[in-house]
Structure formats: structure tokens, C-alpha cells
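ok, trying the design again with the full structure, not the truncated one.
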């Protein structure tokens, strides 16, 4: 496989990997923060409730990340609405009709509302289903003794145990957010229905009950010992609407206390249906949360096939392209020019021609020039060799020197190697002491000339 094709495929794999990993990491961040939704594992979330009912229900439950308009009104289902966001309470006419059709045909809606900022949500529920729900606030108490009227199990008390340092952290966050709240309060009053008001204002946790004066058709499922209703189930057509405005008792950090978990199971058993859903779309969890989920849809499959065909065509085209030769400029090996370098280059050239005599002549010519440069040119070459042999610093004999220049030309590769090795040995002895002072006899001869 060509390297450029391999690099292209690696780049494509990196892009796809980041596209998959990015949304997954974003979802994990939402699951771990305190966003108070069904998938959040933070102390204030409701993931434990979802997992509890997933184990206890006879039929499996799942998260509903689509719009409510996609639910089939003719099929019976139970939907848990855990602190639904303002986006859930839409004012659309068709949306209202669809919700009424869901409940009328046998579906059950369980509204778990927070004990703060309930006014607008309850008003919308009243308008949708022609109800007259009215809340009443009671001072907060960690433990509530209750009477239950569930057919499956008995609930005797609820407990809210604030996590350690919770009050201290609450006050600190309130001080940090006070300036922001004061600056944005006017904008909130104009643009929202009060839903966006922060709980970090002068809010104090309170227990929320229901006023039962106007609830003749409501079924009380849970009430205080003083007979103040806490959970109401209101029949509507073939289905029902259940409201509980104290969501703190079903948080992850509170579900293990007293009968809080038993209350959740009792609510689920009171509204049995073939399908149970948890709505999370209003909390910001879209169905196509990552590229894998999107590619599983029909449109995603079409896009995937198109991309694969385009990638295959590109790979075929890239493989068919001619490989271009790499243009470069030869660089020196940064060695100093020496006799050995010259011999090596020359031998590479003449080895193919096998002209050993001419190659050896090149050897001796360079050595002859070195000898003439060392000794005065006023004497013959034979006298120059004699002076070199008489110089004790060179440690060569006259016979060795004459062998280098008077031997017959080599006729074979073996002769060339033998003569060139001898020549290099003699030449090395001469060059080794070229910096030494000149012999007195050499000086006398040079001066005499």
C-alpha cells in the first residue's frame, strides 16, 4: 500500500474517531454534573431512581429522548417526568391536544416537580387537563410521618438528609451568585415565566402539599399524618395524571433513606403499563447525541454509504496515480579531500573499465607531485627519492620508493591491489612526518642549487 494512501486512511480514521469520542465525552460530562436529570449520577440527579425501577419493573424501561409528539397516542405507556424543563411545557395547540390524547387513551403521566418555582408548571398542567390543582407550603422537616394508600405496599415515613457541608456550600454559592442574580433579575421577569429564577435566592427548602378542597375526583396516594395530601392521582379518560411536588426525596443521595425507594416502586406499581419511559429530552439530551446514533438512522445510513463510496473512489484514484520521483540535491559527506578519497572515487570509475595500468598511473602521479613539493626541484627525481630515503624521519628505504615508480604496470586486478597497497603504505610513511624538520643533507643540497 502506498504511504500516501496509508496516511490518508489514518487521517480519515482520526477524524471519525474524534467525531465519535467528542459527543461521548460531552454526554459523560452531563451525566456527572449536578444537572438534576435522570441520567445524572451526581447527588442531585435521578439516575438511581431510573436504575431502581429498571430492576423492579416486570417490563424494561428506557429513556425517552424524542419529542412527545412522536409517542403513539393509541398505545398505553407510563412516562416519568423528572423535573421537566420549561421546554416541556409548550403552549402549542397541537402539542396540548396530543398530550390529552395520550392520557385519554390510557397513558399515565407522573409529574415529579421540585418544591420551588412550581407556579407556572402547575398552571400549565391545570390548563391542559382542565384541573384545579393548588399547592400549599409547609415548613421543612427532615423526617415526615405519612399515611400511604398504595395497593401494593405501605409507606410510613420519608426522610431528607442534607449531605454534609451542604448548607455551607449553599450559602457560599448564594453569595457568589448574588451579584449575577441582581443584574439579570429584570431580564428574567420580562423574558421568562419565572422558571429561570435561581434557587440560590432567598429560597428555603419547604415541603409542598396539595389543597384538597377542589379535588373531588383525585385519589390521594400519600398524605401527612395531619391529612395534607402529598401525592395525587387524577383519572383522565382511560389514563391518569400523578403529581408529586417534592422531588428531593427521590434524588440519588436520598433514595436510600427511610421509605423513599419504596415510594418510587409503589408509584411505578400503581400505574402499570406495557411500556415505561423516562423523559430526558427537556434536560438537553437529544436522541442523536453522537455520530454512532445518527448513523443508525435511515438518513445516517444513506450518508454513511455515500461517504464509503466516495472514500473508495478516492482510494482507487490515488492508487492509480504515478509515483513521482523524489527530487533532491546531492550533499557532501563532509569528509576532507585526501588521497584515499581520490583513490576510492577513481577506483569506482576504472573498475568497470579494468584499465589497471592507467589507474595505477593516477596513483603514482599524485605521489610524485607530493615528493617534488617536499624536495627542491633543482635536483632530479631519483635524487629526490634518495634524499627522502636518507631522511630518518620517513623510515622508508630507497628500494621501497623505487618499487612504487619503477614497477611494471599491473595487468590484473590482483597486481593492482598488491601495488596500490604497497604504494599507500610507503606514501603513508612519507606523509606521516611531513611536519618534521628537514634533514641537514637535504638543506645543503637545496641551498647549493
Amino acid at each position: 500500500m502506498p504511504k500516501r494512501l496509508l496516511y490518508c486512511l489514518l487521517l480519515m480514521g482520526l477524524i471519525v474517531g474524534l467525531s465519535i469520542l467528542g459527543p461521548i465525552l460531552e454526554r459523560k460530562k452531563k451525566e456527572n454534573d449536578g444537572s438534576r436529570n435522570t441520567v445524572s449520577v451526581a447527588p442531585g440527579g435521578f439516575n438511581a431512581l431510573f436504575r431502581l425501577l429498571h430492576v423492579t419493573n416486570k417490563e424494561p424501561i428506557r429513556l425517552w429522548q424524542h419529542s412527545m409528539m412522536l409517542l403513539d397516542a393509541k398505545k398505553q405507556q407510563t412516562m416519568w417526568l423528572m423535573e421537566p424543563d420549561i421546554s416541556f411545557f409548550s403552549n402549542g395547540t397541537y402539542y396540548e391536544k396530543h398530550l390529552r390524547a395520550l392520557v385519554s387513551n390510557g397513558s399515565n403521566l407522573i409529574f415529579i416537580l421540585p418544591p420551588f418555582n412550581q407556579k407556572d408548571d402547575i398552571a400549565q398542567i391545570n390548563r391542559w387537563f382542565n384541573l384545579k390543582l393548588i399547592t400549599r407550603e409547609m415548613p421543612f422537616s427532615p423526617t415526615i410521618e405519612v399515611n400511604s394508600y398504595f395497593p401494593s405496599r405501605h409507606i410510613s415515613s420519608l426522610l431528607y438528609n442534607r449531605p454534609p457541608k451542604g448548607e455551607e456550600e449553599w450559602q457560599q454559592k448564594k453569595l457568589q451568585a448574588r451579584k449575577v442574580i441582581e443584574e439579570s433579575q429584570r431580564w428574567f421577569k420580562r423574558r421568562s415565566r419565572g422558571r429561570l429564577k435561581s434557587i440560590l435566592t432567598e429560597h428555603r427548602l419547604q415541603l409542598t402539599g396539595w389543597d384538597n378542597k377542589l379535588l373531588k375526583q383525585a385519589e390521594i396516594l400519600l398524605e401527612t399524618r395531619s391529612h395534607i395530601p402529598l401525592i395525587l392521582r387524577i383519572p383522565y379518560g382511560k389514563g391518569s395524571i400523578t403529581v408529586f411536588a417534592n422531588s428531593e426525596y427521590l434524588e440519588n443521595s436520598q433514595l436510600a433513606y427511610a421509605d423513599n425507594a419504596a415510594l418510587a416502586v409503589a408509584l411505578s406499581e400503581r400505574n402499570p403499563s406495557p411500556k415505561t419511559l423516562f423523559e430526558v429530552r427537556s434536560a438537553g439530551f437529544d436522541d442523536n447525541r453522537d455520530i454512532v446514533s445518527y448513523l443508525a438512522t435511515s438518513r445516517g445510513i444513506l450518508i454513511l454509504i455515500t461517504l464509503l463510496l466516495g472514500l473508495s473512489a478516492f482510494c482507487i484514484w490515488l492508487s492509480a496515480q504515478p509515483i513521482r520521483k523524489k527530487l533532491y540535491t546531492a550533499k557532501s559527506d563532509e569528509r576532507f579531500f585526501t588521497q584515499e578519497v581520490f583513490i576510492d572515487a577513481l577506483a569506482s570509475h576504472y573498475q568497470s573499465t579494468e584499465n589497471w595500468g592507467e589507474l595505477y598511473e593516477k596513483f603514482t602521479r599524485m605521489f610524485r607531485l607530493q615528493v617534488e613539493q617536499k624536495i627542491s626541484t633543482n635536483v632530479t627525481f631519483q635524487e629526490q627519492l634518495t634524499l627522502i630515503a636518507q631522511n630518518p624521519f620517513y623510515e622508508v628505504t630507497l628500494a621501497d620508493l623505487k618499487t612504487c615508480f619503477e614497477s611494471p604496470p599491473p595487468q590484473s586486478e590482483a597486481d593492482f591491489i598488491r601495488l596500490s597497497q604497497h604504494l599507500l603504505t610507503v606514501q603513508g610513511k612519507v606523509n606521516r612526518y611531513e611536519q618534521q624538520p628537514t634533514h641537514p643533507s637535504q638543506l645543503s643540497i637545496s641551498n647549493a642549487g
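Keeping the full-length input from now on. The CA atoms of residues 300 and 426 lie 83 Å apart.
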